[in-house]
């Protein structure tokens, strides 16, 4: 889990005007870059995910085959491995970590891809959830570079309802007085983290998932075992509260329309995408519902909507359900066989 | 708002074995009981609702017409007007208020209806949300009394997902250290109440309601105005935290199958209902989704599923949206014109 590289971003000025001095990206790669640099896949991380949490979709015989492709997984700024509240020195540390937009994330990743590897074309960008948001942003920020995109269970603009869901998540964490405005000490606000986890639990999987007690497929022995073992365990597993809130801000404010040059016009930003696209919402995702992506696709020129069927909701894209994984993998294989949008 | 009566329940022993000494129900009535006592409607309250919160569905020219019907609105135990954590003396006060089941609610309401008014037949029981749960319970506990039921946006058994949603609501409130295990003083845990409100906000209305900014129809001027003005205001409006948690327990543990005699068999309990029934979930209700009520109706013998169309989600049954109100009112009118299930 420590097999990552560090890319020095130097003085990194954010879209909102802060400068993180000595900022850095943690990243890892799978496979080898070929001679004409035509086999590049970029696969950003999701909310609180680390590069190794993406590995379920990478492997020999899968679409993301490291024998064939050079797969770069950059960790999101804020996730604890790249520059984050938890690892930035004062004065931009902890609760003072600056607001990072999705645009900022792709500025940083673009520097990595071009300056370290000299890459000019990307065969595919893909990602889950906030990784999907970064995928859309890549295609809008660098239409001349990105041949194909496959965002799954995520959106080009965070919907208002999704924003509200995150307000609940945030409020539960910060209601714990131990949080202390982000200036907690060595003792973390674990009551707040556990509350956040319980709030999240109702959103992450669908109503039908709970009705069917599908947590049993994940090895949990009761509802409470799932709430404690999976959900509370998930957020207590080294996930720094300030990091969670930094990424939450990024998520809440995601909108490709805020890319410089589009002046808030999300539809124009979507229309500017050249990449061949397969957009994959999950049928019962409660915060990225399929109708939102239907809207997104309606503003894109070379995009197909392909809904992941089933009851796993948002976590269809987490790699826990073999059926959903097979569905996503098959779509990626098909997409990689299609002409890119720049041909 | 103080126009209610008090019915003395005496020593009230709950299903779980506690005895509330000097328990009472607050209730109000609309219209006059006719000579043969054939014009009775019972309309229980919802989670944190008070009797006056039901008045939007009562009125001259509406189905629930006080010129024609005698409408009894009993306040739920726990709602602050009937026996509740906030008004019960020690030792069963506050955090020690006993667990009240939906079955207990109907035991108390049955005493009221029979002992105060000598009523033997009820033309209709109806209610929203937890009021719908009480409606189902009436039909299961007293099949020989209830001619018709019209539960809307509620269920005979709280689904597991609904239970999880409520875990999030509860966790957000209790994460506030001012809550102090329920032993807060005159200063209420308002940070926790506001957190609870923000968690609730994402669930109460649908994704599409937020997409369409339908809060504007309620007079709110921005999303934040809606979150503070409607949601935080809602829960800060005299809603005692221990009362909220008492009712939440009742809700989480709702199941007509736990009626004595059914031994946990919800389907058998549903099959025992004799009342003519129209069951009305809302199309986009996130915690009482229509498929759950489709399941319920499939186990009833004289029931119709009629989905309230539109984007208001759970709050379709709150009386705020004229279209939804008209839909519910029309269904009640139709149901009241049908033969009762005891004819």
Which descriptors apply to this entry?
homodimer; 343 residues; 8-stranded mixed β-sheet; 10 helices
Under CATH, the topology of the largest domain in chain A can be stated as: Rossmann fold
The level-1 CATH class of the largest domain in chain A: Alpha Beta
Give the helices and strands of chain A as they follow along the chain.
EEEEHEHEHHHHHHEHEH
CA radius of gyration of chain A is 19 Å
Query: What is the spatial order of strands in the main beta sheet of chain A?
Result: 1-2-4-3-5-6-7-8
Tally of helical runs of chain A? 10
Largest sheet of chain A: 8 strands, mixed
The geometry of chain A reads as globular
- Low-pLDDT parts of chain A are none
Q: Hey, which two chains have the biggest interface?
A: A-B, 42 and 42 residues
- When the domains of chain A are counted, the total is 2
Mean pLDDT rating of chain A: 97
Rounded to the nearest angstrom, the distance between the terminal CA atoms of chain A is: 37 Å
Tell me the quaternary state.
homodimer
Looking at the overall shape, the CATH architecture of the largest domain in chain A is: 3-Layer(aba) Sandwich
Number of strands of chain A: 8
What structural class is derived from the secondary structure elements of chain A?
A: alpha/beta
Report the β-strand fraction of chain A as a percent range. 5-15%
Keywords (chains A, B): Transferase
Organism (chains A, B): Nonomuraea polychroma
Protein name (chains A, B): Homoserine O-acetyltransferase
GO molecular function (chains A, B): acyltransferase activity, transferring groups other than amino-acyl groups
């Amino acid at each position: 889990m420590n097999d990552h590289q560090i890319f020095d971003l130097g003085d990194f000025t954010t879209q909102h005007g802060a400068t993180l001095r000595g900022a850095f990206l943690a990243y890892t790669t799978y496979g080898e870059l070929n001679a004409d640099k035509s086999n590049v896949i970029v696969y950003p991380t999701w909310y609180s995910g680390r590069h190794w949490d993406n590995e379920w979709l990478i492997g020999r015989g899968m679409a993301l085959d490291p024998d064939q492709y050079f797969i770069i997984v950059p960790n999101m700024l804020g996730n604890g491995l790249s520059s984050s509240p938890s690892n930035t020195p004062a004065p931009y540390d902890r609760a003072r970590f600056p607001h990072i937009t999705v645009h900022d994330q792709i500025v940083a990743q673009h520097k990595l891809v071009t300056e370290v590897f000299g890459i000019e074309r990307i065969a595919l960008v893909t990602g889950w959830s906030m990784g999907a948001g970064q995928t859309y942003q890549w295609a809008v920020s660098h239409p001349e570079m990105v041949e194909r995109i496959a965002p799954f269970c995520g959106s080009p603009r965070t919907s208002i309802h999704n924003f509200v869901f995150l307000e609940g998540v945030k409020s539960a964490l910060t209601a714990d007085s131990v949080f202390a405005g982000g200036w907690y000490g060595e003792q973390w606000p674990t009551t707040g983290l556990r509350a956040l986890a319980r709030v999240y639990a109702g959103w992450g999987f669908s109503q039908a998932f709970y009705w069917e007690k599908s947590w049993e497929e994940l090895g949990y022995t009761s509802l409470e075992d799932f709430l404690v073992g999976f959900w509370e365990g998930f957020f207590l597993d080294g996930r720094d509260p300030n990091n969670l809130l930094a990424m939450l801000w990024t998520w809440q404010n995601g909108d490709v329309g805020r890319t410089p040059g589009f002046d808030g016009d999300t539809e124009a930003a979507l229309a500017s995408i050249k990449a061949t696209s397969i957009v994959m919402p999950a049928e019962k995702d409660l915060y990225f519902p399929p109708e939102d992506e239907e809207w997104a696709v309606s503003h894109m020129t070379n995009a197909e909507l392909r809904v992941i069927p089933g009851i796993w909701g948002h976590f269809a894209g987490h790699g826990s359900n073999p059926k959903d994984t097979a569905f996503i993998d098959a779509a990626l294989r098909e997409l990689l066989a299609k002409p890119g949008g720049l041909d």
